[in-house]
């Protein structure tokens, strides 16, 4: 009954199923592990943010380069404020406004971008308070350079003079005549009546859309594995039923395996003497 499983066609079906199911299970397990990693990163980032508020500020140089472990840590730096820029289209407390970004010239020669605060409304240099004069010491949460699409950052050009879409060394190096740290700081306490900008989480450390995409892909891969098994059993069942019908001499109409090769009885379609039209019989 099951000898058909040894035919070349079924060998191909069996090999395909045996390869497809483990691959689907592996991919589903991998996507699940990615989701679990993101959940753990979210917990770690939450704990780090809570601990960072209690920790004493550390010198900027000791926290560079910025990574998941140092992002959000409180950093301190000394220097003189330089050029001031505005960062438009930033939301805070469900309102749209702009950041006031001022470059801090440190003793090392590089400039550290410092977000001194947030103001509501359209960007306006007249609204932004001037930076303090003389040497200052800033303390705030260390952040990694932004990428377009992150935290409202824009990569689009054509902004008015004095504005920048993303807080990053790549964007700022073309606007200021000195080297820029590949990091920035948001002050713990905003200057001159502005609202302090809270630190953002590191990339890929929260339960964002990507995390739930991983969870959705997990379900899809396991569904694919189940579908492969279902189709294999369905094909097997149809083949077994066909073999039983063949043993009983019951074949579907038009089946190519039937006698005569067309699912018709042998001799069907051949007119015998009795089936011929009498009018076509010649008269002798």
Structural notes for this entry:
- The chain is of the alpha/beta class.
- It has 3 helices and 6 strands, in the order H-E-E-E-E-E-H-E-H.
- It has helices at 8-54, 169-172, 209-247, and strands spanning 58-59, 74-92, 95-106, 111-120, 135-144, 183-187.
- The chain has a 5-stranded mixed β-barrel with strand order 2-3-4-6-5.
- Helix 1 runs antiparallel to helix 3.
- The longest helix has 47 residues, at 8-54.
- It is elongated, with a radius of gyration of 37 Å.
- Residues 258-276 have low confidence and may be disordered.
- It is a multi-pass membrane protein.
SSE layout and pairings?
Layout: H1 8-54, E1 58-59, E2 74-92, E3 95-106, E4 111-120, E5 135-144, H2 169-172, E6 183-187, H3 209-247
Parallel strand pairs: 1-2, 4-6
Antiparallel strand pairs: 2-3, 2-5, 3-4, 5-6
Helix pairs in contact: 1-3
Descriptive labels:
alpha/beta; membrane; transmembrane helix; SURF1-like protein; five-stranded mixed barrel; transmembrane; 284 residues; 20% strand
Q: Determine the mean pLDDT.
A: 82
Radius of gyration: 37 Å
Residues in β-strands, percent: 15-25%
Along the chain, the helix and strand elements come as HEEEEEHEH
Poorly predicted ranges (pLDDT <50, ≥5 residues)? Answer: 258-276
The tally of strands reads 6
What is the 3D shape? elongated
- Helix content, binned percent: 25-40%
């Amino acid at each position: 009954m099951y000898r058909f499983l040894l035919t070349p066609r079924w060998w191909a079906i069996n090999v395909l199923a045996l390869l497809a199911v483990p691959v689907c299970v592996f991919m589903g397990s991998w996507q699940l592990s990615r989701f679990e990693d993101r959940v753990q990163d979210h917990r770690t980032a939450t704990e780090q943010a809570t601990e960072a508020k209690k920790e004493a500020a550390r010198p900027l140089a000791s926290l560079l380069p910025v990574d998941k472990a140092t992002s959000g840590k409180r950093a301190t730096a000394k220097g003189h404020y330089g050029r001031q820029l505005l960062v438009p289209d930033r939301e805070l407390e469900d309102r749209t406004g702009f950041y006031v970004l001022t470059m801090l010239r440190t003793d090392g020669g590089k400039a550290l971008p410092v977000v001194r605060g947030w103001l509501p409304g359209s960007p306006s240099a007249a609204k932004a308070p001037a930076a303090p004069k003389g040497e200052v010491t800033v303390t705030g949460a260390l952040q990694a350079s932004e990428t377009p699409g992150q935290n409202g950052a824009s990569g689009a050009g054509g902004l008015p003079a004095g504005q920048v879409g993303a807080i990053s060394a790549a964007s700022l190096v073309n606007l200021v005549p000195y080297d820029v740290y590949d990091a920035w700081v948001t002050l713990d306490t905003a200057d001159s009546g502005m609202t302090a900008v809270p630190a953002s989480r590191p990339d890929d450390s929260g339960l964002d859309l990507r995390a739930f995409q991983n969870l959705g892909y997990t379900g899809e891969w396991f569904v694919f594995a189940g579908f492969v098994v279902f189709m294999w059993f369905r094909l097997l069942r149809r083949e077994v039923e066909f073999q039983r019908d063949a043993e009983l001499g019951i074949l579907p109409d038009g089946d190519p395996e039937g006698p005569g090769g067309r699912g018709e009885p042998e001799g069907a379609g051949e007119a015998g003497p009795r089936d011929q039209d009498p009018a076509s019989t010649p008269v002798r």
